[in-house]
């Protein structure tokens, strides 16, 4: 497996369609000419297939790359993005005024094939009807800017040919030469939708708006009507990039993580979790990325004069991506930052992996549902604790950022552990979140100093105890609890996560399920 393929195959092998700009990847990869050659060759085959379905004229089709997951091998592979095909239609038809907003990527990239086909039909057909009604250049320019650019190019050619035909008649060249040149000019007119010189004269030597729009509508209608077959072709013809081996792995990893995060930020809530796995893996495999602002790439720069599409692009760094990732996790507490990179999914089908993940996430969510709604205050940590007034603004900001980072660090850690029950404390343990594990261990960690306002905790000690002692100990004043031999304290420093792991991975004879049933039945959980 080469570098580029390794990068896209991190995380969990579930369907996570994303788009990868060909321009972006070409700028990142060292072996640019080789990659460009491979993409060009596959794009030519793609265009040849489109010509079997509809006259393509010179419609602009994007060569945007995408990722699909093979249903049998579970390997993620490159192809031309189905969403890129949809974007080609939408830009040409100026769906939702995309040519002026420059926003050509909506959450369509996460659609299933059936959803995308339906969406294309719903969005494109009304615009095709509008195109059929265009009767003036002014209207074409207003409603269909990308197609209008094509009209101006072709109209200029028609005018040039008309002038050449006039000049040819007056020239003193031989009749044979005139016939030969005349045929070449008429053939050029045929390509532009004009049958002969007589039709050219009737139009006044210019390109008819009505005829032009009819040709383009026929072409685009053919693409829309054959959407199912075209997308089937795309997903069944992956692009083999295994011959590439000299890419900049770190920059490619950053780019792919950014595209997953970008998609995660845009898709519906129900789809966010599946995109989060790769991003979590990206930061877990190298924690230094969280603060790396040296590695950088420029993405999103587009200059397509053929359809008048231009975007400036922007710089991204691992640190910048982490800040967005952190914000996403904070604002969506229902998401679980679990890293499945060490799990072997081989031997499973795509459907089995999907079913496994659905059940796994259901279990995690069920753990939360046991907590009464009045206690589920997993709010946004919008505020850091109050800071001494004698600190400088810079020091206050640094201190607050450190505590927000600790909040994310704790959330990532506990979400990755296999607890099957979660509790939220009140009174003495206001702001504490407790995780109960199958070996009978209870771990209490403080997430909030003030749960109502969402002010995060200063990083107080972690309390670890056995569930058989939990109810009795958690009702003690904190000062008494500190010195109780049945309660262990762990501080958030050094290898604190490893020390907590030792506790939750140990064994005990406690019948955890029975103890929990008693606690739940008595209504004393979380008191």
Give a verbal description of the structure:
There is one protein chain. This protein is α+β, with helices and mostly antiparallel strands. It is 52% helix and 11% strand. The chain has 21 helices and twelve strands. The strands form four sheets. A five-stranded antiparallel sheet has the order 6-7-8-11-12. Strand 7 (432-436) and strand 8 (441-446) form a beta hairpin. Helix 6 (113-132) runs antiparallel to helix 11 and helix 13 packs antiparallel against helix 14 (269-284). The longest helix has 26 residues, at 145-170. The two termini are 53 Å apart. Residues 363-384, 509-513 and 523-527 have low confidence and may be disordered.
Rg measurement, Å:
31 Å
Terminal CA distance reads 53 Å
Strand order of the largest sheet: 6-7-8-11-12
Note poorly predicted spans.
363-384, 509-513, 523-527
Mean pLDDT across all amino acids: 79
Structural descriptors:
alpha+beta; five-stranded antiparallel β-sheet; three-stranded antiparallel β-sheet; 21 helices; 52% helix; disordered C terminus
